[in-house]
Amino acid sequence: MKRRQLFGATAALAVMAGLAGVAVAQDKTHVIGVSIPSATHGFMGGLNWHAQDTIARLEATYPQLDFVLATAGEPTKQVADIEDMVATRNIDALVVLPFESEPLTGPVKAVKDAGKFVTVVDRGLSVPGIEDLYVAGDNEAFGRVAGEYFKANLPSGAKIVVLRGIPTTLDNERVDAFEKAIDGSGIEVLDKQHGDWNRDKAFTVMQDYLSKYPKIDAVWAADDDMAIGAMAAIEQAGRKDEMWIVGGAGMKEIIKRIMDGDPQLPVNVTYPPAQISTAIELTALKYVSAAPVTGRFIIGSTLVTPENAAQFYFPDSPF
Amino acid sequence: MTTLALAGVYRSFGPIEVLHGIDLELHPAEVHALIGENGAGKSTIMKILGGYLAPSAGQVLLDGRPVTYASGPEAEAQGVVVIHQEFNLAPDLTVAQNIWLGREMGGLFLDHRAMREATQGLLDQLECKVRPDARIRDLAVSDRQMVEIAKALSRNARVLIMDEPSAVLTHREVEVLFRQIDRLRSQGVAILYTSHRLDEVSHLADRITVLRDGAVVRRAGRGELTEDGMATAMVGRDLKDIFPPRRTSFGPVALEVRDFHVPPLVHGVSFTLRRGEVLGISGLVGSGRTELAEGLVGLRPHHGQILRGSAPAQVRSLPEAAAHGIAYLTEDRKERGLLLTKTLRENLTLSTLADFGAPIISRKLEDAALTRAISDFDIRAPSREMAVGNLSGGNQQKLLLAKTMLPEPEVIIIDEPTRGIDIGTKSQIYHFIDRLAREGRSVIVISSDMPEVLGLSDRVLVMRQGRVAGELAGEAIRETAVVRLVMGTSEEISQNA
Amino acid sequence: MRDRLTLSTLGPLAALFALILLGAGLNENFLSAANVTNVLARSAFIGMIAVGMTFVITSGGLDLSVGSMAAFVAGMMILAMNALQPSLGVGLPLALAGIGVAILVGLLAGLANGLLITRAGIEPFIVTLGTMGIFRSLVTWIADGGTLSLDFSMREFIGPIYYGGILGVSWPIIAFAVVVVIGEVVMRHTRFGRYCEAIGSNDKVARYSAVKVERIQLLTYVALGLLVGFATVLYVPRLGSASGSTGLLWELEAIAAVIIGGTALKGGFGRVWGTVVGVLILSLIGNILNLANLVSPYLNGAIQGVIIVLAVVLQRRKSSAEGR
Lengths: 319, 497, 324
Description:
The complex is a heterotrimer of chains A (319), B (497) and C (324). By secondary structure, chain A is of the alpha/beta class. Chain A has helices at residues 10-22, 42-61, 75-88, 101-113, 139-153, 169-182, 199-212, 224-237, 252-259, 275-288, and strands at residues 30-37, 65-72, 93-96, 117-121, 133-137, 159-164, 188-194, 218-221, 244-246, 268-269, 295-299, 303-304. In chain A, helix 1 runs parallel beside helix 10. The longest helix of chain A is centred in the N-terminal third of the chain and has 20 residues, at 42-61. The two termini of chain A are 15 Å apart. In chain B, strand 19 (459-464) and strand 20 form a beta hairpin. Chain B has 18 helices and 20 strands. Chain B starts with a strand and ends with a helix. Chains in contact: A-C, B-C.
């Protein structure tokens, strides 16, 4: 259970964990509400797993902390979850990964206005300054790191295709950063369509790319679920040797293959589902230590290569 | 002076002209009967009068002035009200809500009490025991007809068009209806009345128009036309022998029923039926006739004994009944008998499909069966591939009879063999029934049509409140005797009366 | 009943033909063997399910749970194969065991739907709305929120079920074709098909005609469950995984295909070959949008929606013409 120390915020966390050690147990019980989207695809599945794991561990360590976890399949349900937490569970703090920014901004602001401590994860709210603590992956870096790898490893005139996620701000940020990074390299983006972070959809879109373009040098699938779907389509078409693929988010199966030196999967870019653990732990620290817990924690996106892949491999996570 | 009239009205559907220059006048304070076989054009005329159809040529005159209605409700606003045969009632609304639908009392909020009271008044006039807040869905067919009539009465009609209102009513209800018609007539309402029951027509009508094939073939005043004369005019040929002659010899007992119960409606019914015999079952709607029949063929849970010949027969489902050679022809041919959107062939073979090849159904065998049915039962269909719903009622009934007879049953229970059917087809069906009996089969005829029961049956079983009220045979089968048993008036009192 | 060549019969065929012409005009690879194989193979899952759905809808029922059921069956199949691998080893016995599990689970799931509808007498919409949620939650729960993946070596072994074939025709296409031919014959020429139409047009008439209405209805749901099982057997080898998002909205695509093909949503008339046309139309829309950059792929759903509504408008025209 040591995996969550590995990311960008490692240093800050270590310091705080140190402080937590000295913290004295308090009499009053604090309730922390955690509201996240439900496990509809691999990345969210991993995130759910990390959230549950962290909560179980913190509850065992700190008897004075109580957690309320709710998962929602859509924004409306998430708003209702948050309202219920405030009304019926009397939470002291809220850790929220907004399903979508716009619809959640108002309700989260209401929680803040009621004097609760608010931690926002991954997707920022539409109005800045509401949250006390912001923990997120770096979408801009996620696209940029991948783009830089393409720029460095492909000759001018190379042809690539892109599989995008579900149409969202987050997806736009990643793709924009990717395109900016390859700008001026002479790499031609043949097509960029939405694979919705879904294996089946990515399989279909990739099949059609393969019918449409006789020559593809590389694929950027902005998520490992999509990378798996795309790989199956490429394999079926018998064009495995023609192109390599870069996915993202560090799914264990993909990391394993990078470790093994699969030529089709040279590298990966992290976007850690464990960021939710960081957020919950930092929020918990407010109640078990005297440390001031506010600010922004951006967990960087790192390039995973065969050399460093072992650090990113967690065989017992579902993702 | 006429209230509502048609002058030289033609109407076509596509290339087919169904009305050829109809002139018709409705006078105030008169009942005008419009009679004719199914398909003669009565429904089309009523739809044109009621504003539901426009004539292709010719005029509709209201108080002598030509009118064109955009819709039925617009005609209703002018005082022309139609009582439909196919009910226009919303099944999930209450009686009161239906009667005042679209004309609710009250301002911003509905005045439920006033509407309920007004409804109660209308129902009292009709001696109808239905509660104003009963749901239409829960009512019997005859009560629904009474509600439809109450709705028309509430409209304060100047012209009332009645499309076979008595078809589903019991004897007693028909009498109430006649009293209301008399009352409306005396108030100056012009009434157009249609019915297949010619005795009703000669009793009610001040004026009779006979229709055949879309043209008027006869006009007559009260008393100018006998029932036989009407029938002859409608059919276009002499109809002396509506009923076949009685059969004289019967075979052994084919079916015996002992102490038969169909909870909660039928109690302790026993009877026997011989080969070659037609047994009539009479009784009011709700006396348990249909329930008895459905119990006998396994459509309803029952207990008691059924013997075929001398062997006991277990009948818990229709297929079991069929295995014992018992078949049932439902009274509700549109909702229980035939698939209206399917072809003749698909309807004919539906209940005996296993006999037409397995696993692949033989189209050839099916077609052959249809050809045979069409000739055996004189089914007249413009096309074999047409939907059954587009056939006339008489041809539908003949097809249903053919379907029931396909497995060659030995005991046939026919519930209302001629409801809503013209006189010519009726006579044909009576002869079919006679033919079945003469072939050595046993037939049970359940009917509300008194002449039918009297004319067809070798024996009559009368049911009242779920029990056998009496049995009549031979010369004892007389209308008065049957009515006495149906109504439950005792022998002595009626003899004194 | 022989279909007469009316607008409603020709409509879907004409739409399919127009789409093929459009695709061929926009991209020369559209009619290549590889693309045709891709489109047909990817239509096979929903196609097989839609054939089963045709029977359910024709007999007046509805099944909203098939997408979730497919995910659940896939999950159980993978779980069973991973569990049996140590004892059976990678090979044919394990593959057969997986197929057996998929078909059995599909059959039981269909039986559950059917029994709730016919024995407990609950509306099909309600029952299958319920089981839709149940199956999907179960697979998410079994997968612990993530993805259930088949062991890699086994995936290699059963991959040919999706990717292989004979004479250049892949297995999913062959299986789909077989299911369609059987479905068409059953619907047109057997008692079961006739009874489905009879029950759908008026279940009371069917009951009074000695048709065992409940049994036929039950059988339609069981057959649909079985076809979901078959479809899953083809699906799992493709990616070797199942998750909470497997088969998402397949139920609506299957229902849409059935309706586009000319089967009446209220029951009483079913057309299996029409369903196949419907499935192909829906897949081709996606394929052409991917191949041609014609309009934004965001509008894929809108184009499918327009086609569904048009199909129903054509049906209306037909029924009002019959009304007279």
